[in-house]
Amino acid sequence: MHKKILILGIGNILYRDEGIGSHIIKELKKITLPSNIEVVDGGVASLDILLSLEKIDKLIIIDAIKLGKTPGTIYKLKYKDLTPEIELKNLSLHQLNLLDALSLAKNIGMLPPEVLILGVEPQKVRMGLNLSPKVKEKIPHLIEEILKECSLPIELNT
């Protein structure tokens, strides 16, 4: 039996690079994925993810992550490896911190055994619909990483 995987894109498409999670989900929906993989555009509703976590073995979150590195930097963070040194208020760009929602899920016993956060350092977070070139060019790399995390062949991307 295959693991049940939820790929969750988080972000606000009205604020350019902040919408990277939604843009990735849009691209993933063009790929025929196995039935054990669910793809969800979570928008900016961090707490609503709790409703999607039931019976999930692995959660992959795609989001803009602002840690002060070069725009376009890709981050791959396991929830269990996050430390207090990471200033949680800067990790996600949403009003309700994504990690707060995940901590709540953990406290009520709904956190999946595996949680991976894939993100990219934004360049432009201001009104607009288009991703900056530095972030847009990372889409194929993020999709490739997602497919690897789902144990799927990269050829699905073509």
Structure report:
By secondary structure, the chain is α/β, with parallel strands linked by helices. The chain has a single domain (5-157), classed as HybD-like (Rossmann fold). Helices cover 24% and strands 20% of the residues. It has helices at residues 20-28, 88-91, 98-107, 133-136, 139-149; strands spanning 5-10, 37-43, 58-64, 74-78, 114-120. Strand 1 (5-10), helix 1 (20-28) and strand 2 (37-43) form a beta-alpha-beta unit.
Domain unit count? 1
Distance between the termini: 26 Å
Radius of gyration in whole Å, from Cα? 15 Å
- Structural class label: alpha/beta
Number of strands: 5
Which sequence of SSEs, written as H and E, runs from N to C?
Answer: EHEEEHHEHH
Contiguous uncertain segments of 5+ residues: 87-91
Helix content percent band: 10-25%
What is the strand content? 15-25%
Strand ordering within the main sheet: 2-1-3-5-4
CATH architecture identity = 3-Layer(aba) Sandwich
- Can you identify the CATH superfamily? HybD-like
The top-level CATH class is: Alpha Beta
Strand count, sense and closure of the main sheet? Answer: 5 strands, mixed
Mean pLDDT: 83
Morphology call: globular
Count of DSSP-assigned helices: 5
What fold name goes in the CATH topology slot? Rossmann fold
